[in-house]
Structure formats: structure tokens, C-alpha cells
């Protein structure tokens, strides 16, 4: 495909599968390097902790809930650290910390050591996500951020798919050495991620203001920014779609429909493949708060339609259910890509330029909250209530998406009128 040079001042197009050469491509390579290991980890970790470490499933669930709760709490201070000490160095250190945490799983054999290692793992992962966002903000222009995040999401899905395949081989072998090999692979993948991040230019640290007239610079920082907190809360509601694919739909298929269980895997592949192929294109029109808000609003409408279609799959023949569920899954992934593109743009545009890491750390807690509370909400609504539960879920998504407009206007109006501080990369000799 021929690359065309955009006119001066025009945003680069984001229709290509591979991001442009330079920092954007290095960031994508870093994403790919650790996502392969993560994909293998995700499909094997539950059986590793129960079969190899010897923990009861309930204890594994409790330990991981505690760990991700801790991780969500430390994401903000670690993001603030990236702002104050420099995002590249912080990201490298947190990638190394994640590698050490994964490696420690190879030797833990009790519940308490498992919880401690899991807390380090979740904390490092949360901080790494925030530091990477701050690093991206310092290296890429505002107009290019959402397009790059779309590339990174596609890269993430590709890496997870490869890693899941490797993890599947370990599950097929079923041996202790195979599981240990997966965890060693994940640990090495974060070492490789740290090495790739070192190839990026240094971004100068931006020291956050000690205090401003609205109190955003004190110890509570982003927590006092009520408009941004509201946007984060609404986005958390929209993120309930995350456990939908991994938990809600599988339980719905097995408990409420006549569809074959293999459809669960097929719908997962459909979702992953669609994001890989179309997320970049879906994000191309999102350039600022107004277009981002429209994308989120559209996602709510499509998500309502998806929930209504899913509800129709109950009480019909197996193959009719397969067709209906497939249509619902297509609508769901379209809504997912629209919501992702809009939320990425808003999370950056509404954050002060000198507190990007801190604000991204806070915005990222929505993922943890959705993953923690989502299973309870979805099982109650979908398995317990059936069709009314699907409609209530869709209505909740629609309400949150439409409430995003007033919340974004509130956040935009509350921002200082002074020109934002711009962080510029410092070339490494």
C-alpha cells in the first residue's frame, strides 16, 4: 500500500494496519511483545493456580479480587510518579516489576505468597498502563492519539490471539512443565517490553502543580476533579461490556438457549478478529471531544440493539439461536469499537497536560471496577432475569452513553483557558 504524506497540520490517517515508523511503531512493538505472554497467561492461569500451586478455586478468586482492588488503588499514584519522574523510565521499571511478579508465580506454593505476588502483579500492570498513556501523550500529537490507540488495541488483540494459542498447547499437554513454560514466557515477554520501551525518546517529566485555585494539585489530585470523575464513572458503566463476552454470553448460551456450546469460542474469535481488522478504521473519525461524545452515544444505541437481539435467542431452535447470537455479537463488537475510540479521546482531552499519567491511572480504574462488579451484575441480570435483564442492561448502557454529553461539556467548561503545557521528547544520543 502506498504511503501518502499528509499536508502540514493535517492529522495522519489511521487506516493502515501497521502504525507509522518512529515512536508509534515502537509503542506498538512494545504492546505486541508483552501481549503474547499475557494471552498465554490468561488461558492457563486459573488451572495453574489450582492444579500446580494447589489453591482452591474460591481462594484463587479471592486472591485475585484483592490484588486487582489494590492495583486499582495504586494506579493513580503510580501515574503521578510517571508525570513527576518521567513516563519512559517509570514504564520500563514497571514492566520489569511485572516480569518479576510473574516469575514469582513460578515458586509460590501458598495462599499468602500468592496474594502478595498477585498484588505486585496487579499494581505493576495498572501503573504500567498509566505510564504508557503518559508516554504516548508526550510522544504523539493530540490529533494522532486516538488513531495510535486503535493501532495498539489491534496489536493487543493480535498478540493475545497468538498467546492464547500457545496457552492452548500447554493446556493440551496438561503437564506441570508446560504450565511453568507459559509463566516463564510471560515473564520474558515483559522483559522484552522493557527493552523495547528503552528505544523510545525520553519524555521530560512534568512536575504537577502543588495546588491550583480548584484544588486539583493537592494530595487527592484527580479525585477532586468532579467532572472527570463523572466521565470516568459513566465510562465504567459502559465497560460492563467487557465481562459480557467472557462470562455473560457464555452463561446465557448454556443456561438460556439451545445453541451449541462451541459457539462461545466462535463468538470470541469473531470479536477478536473484528477488533484486529476494523478498530483502526472505526477510530478514524474521532478527533476531539465532540466527535468522541458522538461515538460514545452511537455505541450506546448499538449496544441497546445488541442486547435486544441477544434476548431473542432464547426459546428458539439451535440453529436459529446461532444466527441470532451471531448478529448480536456483531452489533456488540461494533459498539465496543465505537465506545473504545470515544473513551480514549475523552480520557486524554479532558486531562490536564501536566497530569496525564495520574488522570490515566484514575480513568483506568474503570476497567478493574467493571471486571470486579461485572460478573455479579451480569449473572443477576442475564441468567436471573432473562429477557428483561438484557433490556435493562441495554437501557443502562444507552443512558450512560447519552449522559456522557453533559458530563463532557461540564468537564470542558471547567478547564482553565490557558494554553496547556506541551511535553516534548528529548532525543537520546
Verbal overview:
With 429 residues, the protein is mainly α. It contains 14 helices and two strands. It has helices spanning 23-52, 57-85, 87-104, 111-139, 145-173, 176-197, 226-238, 242-256, 262-283, 289-311, 318-349, 356-363, 365-385, 387-413; strands at 202-203, 425-426. Strands 1-2 form a two-stranded antiparallel sheet. α2 runs antiparallel to α3 (87-104). The chain is globular, with a radius of gyration of 21 Å. Residues 1-15, 208-219 and 417-429 have low confidence and may be disordered.
Observed structural traits:
globular; two-stranded antiparallel sheet; mainly alpha; 429 residues; disordered C terminus
Low-pLDDT parts are 1-15, 208-219, 417-429
Distance between the termini: 33 Å
Radius of gyration: 21 Å
Strand content: under 5%
The secondary-structure class comes to mainly alpha
What is the count of helical runs?
14
Tell me the overall shape.
Answer: globular
The main sheet orders its strands as 1-2
**Strand segment tally:** 2
Order of helices and strands: HHHHHHEHHHHHHHHE
Biggest β-sheet strands, sense, barrel = 2 strands, antiparallel
Helix content: over 70%
What's the average pLDDT?
Answer: 83
